[in-house]
Specification:
415 residues; alpha+beta; Outer membrane efflux proteins (OEP); 4-stranded antiparallel sheet; 8 helices; elongated; transmembrane beta strand
């Protein structure tokens, strides 16, 4: 069976030991530094502010007004004659308005603000889970490409050894130049594939470095997460119930329903309590007080209220369509992921058996080739078969793990 070792020991005489980076550590750093998280956190704060604005309509509204006129002309009637007098004047007025009843418009707006805040929080959780999913992919891609480099390096060594053997056999007259040339061509191809694996490793390392906000050493010690065979017990219903993306859309639908009801309630107006006190000096100083109720009923608003109700209906229908579409997408993706997961499990088992069989065959052919009983084509074929099986096993392990991580993302898991 092909064995994996993802722990790379440092050979640096200066540093003494390579730094390590555990998967959970990478996740925590990414959540702290990624701008998408910061942007979504601000969306939550904005929703909180909107809820406070709506709640303010329940509280008393107090206004203070002051006016001073350095010159003002007063008209005074006396004996049927109007006399004028120029003087200064001032006025100070304090007014208090308290909403008493507006047919639940304010309470509906407040509830809509609270639900909008919940939607923003669920959206933030979804973005966090998506970032965690991406970090896991890049982290494990580094593991895969590092192991692929080791497999490719081993392949280069085998091709070099076969080429040297072929050259020696040519000099002894046991093989033709075609044997040596064929092995040399295979050696160049192996070196090219090694360079590709190294480039893919550095790509994954660079992306993960950007996610966590710090440079990652090429010899970093990584945690082996690919070899773990997790038991998946998730079902479709649990995914639908746990999905933060779906919860966010459902909350948005509730918010739009409440805003629609609030828009309808605005047709009926409101009843407010009003109190005021005024102190003024206009030739004579005096004060006045007022306590009363006001009834405001919108008779004509240029079509604004009706348009707001119509807009509320459209928003509600649009949100319902978004919820339905998301539910369908989640069901489709879950079914596909479960099918893929079963396929990867079977692929891993078959590749492990292939590696075991091809390794045994390779040992036999190597001995037969040295005795002149096997051709270079047979040697290259079995070597290529073993190499492909090892790389396919790596890919299947990665795909299985990626599928599990995708299921975890759909449920909003952050670990």
């Amino acid at each position: 069976m092909f064995k994996f070792s993802f722990i790379i020991l440092s050979v640096s005489a200066v540093l003494g030991a390579s730094s390590s980076l555990m998967l959970q550590e990478a996740i925590e750093k990414a959540l702290q530094n990624h701008p998408d998280i910061q942007k979504s956190s601000l969306q939550v704060k904005r929703a909180q502010s909107a809820e406070k604005i709506a709640r303010a309509d329940y509280l008393p509204q107090i206004n203070l007004n002051a006016e001073y006129d350095p010159l003002r002309t007063y008209t005074l009637p006396a004996n049927g004659v109007f006399n004028t007098k120029d003087s200064d004047g001032w006025l100070v007025n304090a007014t208090l308005n308290q909403k008493i009843w507006d047919f639940s418009k304010t309470s509906l707006s407040i509830e809509a603000g609270e639900i909008e805040q919940n939607a923003a929080e669920q959206s933030l959780l979804d973005i966090k889970a998506l970032l965690v999913y991406k970090v896991k992919l890049q982290y494990e891609l580094m593991l895969v490409q590092r192991e692929a480099i080791k497999v490719r390096e081993e392949d280069v060594k085998v091709k070099e050894e076969l080429y040297k053997q072929a050259q020696a056999f040519v000099e002894l007259g046991m093989k033709t130049d075609a044997d040596a040339t064929r092995f040399l061509s295979a050696l160049y191809r192996a070196k090219d594939n090694l360079a590709i694996a190294e480039a893919n490793f550095f790509k994954a390392k660079t992306v993960l470095s950007l996610y966590i906000g710090q440079e990652i050493d090429k010899n970093v010690i990584l945690q082996n997460t690919l070899g773990k065979r997790k038991v998946v017990t998730t079902n479709e219903q649990s995914v639908l119930e746990a999905s933060p993306a779906l919860k966010s859309l459902q909350n948005s639908l509730k918010k739009d329903e409440l805003n629609y009801k609030a828009a309808k309630a605005s047709h009926y107006g409101s009843i407010d309590a009003i109190a005021s006190y005024t102190l003024q000096n206009t030739l004579n100083e005096y004060d006045s007080s007022l306590i009363g109720l006001t009834l405001r009923v919108p008779l004509y608003s240029g079509g604004r209220t009706s348009a707001q109700v119509e807009q509320g209906i459209i928003n509600k229908q649009s949100s319902q369509a978004n919820v339905n579409a998301k539910e369908l997408a989640l069901k489709e993706e879950f079914a596909t992921l479960m099918i893929d997961l079963k396929r990867y499990e079977k692929s891993i088992e078959s590749k492990e058996l292939e590696i075991k069989a091809s390794t045994q065959t390779q040992r036999v052919l190597e001995a037969r080739y040295k005795e002149g009983l096997a051709t270079y084509i047979e040697m290259l074929d079995v070597n290529t078969f073993t190499l492909d099986a090892k790389l396919s096993l790596l890919q299947s392990l990665y795909e299985r793990s990626s599928t599990i991580h995708r299921l975890e993302y759909l449920q909003g898991k952050l670990k």
